[in-house]
What we know:
Blueprint: H1 3-8, H2 16-37, H3 40-49, H4 51-73, H5 78-97, H6 99-105, H7 107-126, H8 130-137
Amino acid sequence: MTSEGLEQAGVVARPESVVWYERLAWTAFAVGLASAAASPATLAKYYDKYSTGYLIVIAVVLAGQLLWIWLIARKRQNWARWISLIVTLLAIPNAIWDIEERFRFNAAAAIFYCAAFAISMVSIMLLFRGDAREWLSRKRFTSGA
């Protein structure tokens, strides 16, 4: 079926900005995991203190991140786009504030953290390009309405 036929059937192709958002969000997720893996001492410290609870929290946070990417990139949730922007903007001062400490503690983990944060910021900026903004804010109509 052609793209024109898909649009007539109610299926709208995702704009390139959203496709790139999803790719970069997945990349930031993977780099964030690398940051955690590069700091086994931190993982061990919290695991020793809160063995079961720590694993549950990590699993919930990772699942939440995957769900968030899916909500924006596949389910067109405009509210999630705005929350992502607000959370990212609020995180910038903290990222700047503790950068020196991160590098003193574990340079490799800090590099991965900074890379993940930068990639995440770029991915969120893509959601505010014209094509993504229009696609995310477009109302869905039920068939027969």
